[in-house]
Amino acid sequence: MKKIARPIQLLMLLSLLLSFALPAAAESESSASAENPAVGEILIEAIPGDAALTISFPKVDTLGNAADSFEISVFTGEPDPAATPVVIAAESVKGDTVEYTANKLVNNTPYSVSVVGKTKDGSIVSNGNGFGVPFRMPGKMPGLVVTAGDAQITVTFSKLPASDKAATYQIHWWTEVDKKTKEPKFQKPIIIKASDVKNKTYTYTFKKMKNGTTYHFNVFAEDTSGQILYLSQDVTAAPAKAKPVKANPGKGKKK
């Protein structure tokens, strides 16, 4: 069963967005004159966060134009001409890079970003367009403990607070790797409804496990949209028979 492969690969892909920014191309006017200078390109980076996008770009565009102010718009679909952009004065920015964080966005939704650089008289000297997809980076699955016994393994984790709005807890496990794809051959996952987790901790016991075999476990929690809220790393355990304890009768007292 490879159900875990989808969210893990998606997570890896989204994590790469944190390392590689989302540079965007801007349409620039090619003609130039003393009265109407060429419009330069603003190279935008849109870094995703939890319900947010951090937008950054250099003060000076690719043609060397330095705008006096920047108008930033973040939107879905087509831009709204009636919407008021966020205006940042270049003189208020310390350093060579402008940064702005758009909050209260909807996770997993594509957003377009538009930046227009203007002079004090309102002339456009630079512009740029970009995009980004905000998402919540999964946290570490709390209270996870995997314990091996004789032909069994117990998996224990902590209940999440109601504010996280978890819908399910899932335990995905495997023992072998596919020879061709080199991916884990996942067995049928254990899916637990969040409403069934009544106590502060929850324990699931795997029985009839093969002693001496190493089992791998991935435990995570999802919300109703399928977004992963918390995720564990690969945790291993190998069941084994309990070693017999030698009797030690000791020496009796002489009467």
UniProtKB/TrEMBL annotation:
InterPro entries cross-referenced by the UniProt entry: FN3_dom, FN3_sf, Ig-like_fold
User: Which Pfam families does its entry note?
Assistant: fn3
Which positions make up the signal peptide? Answer: 1-26
Keywords per UniProt: Signal
Fibronectin type-III domain ranges (all copies): 36-124, 138-228
Q: What is this protein called?
A: Fibronectin type-III domain-containing protein
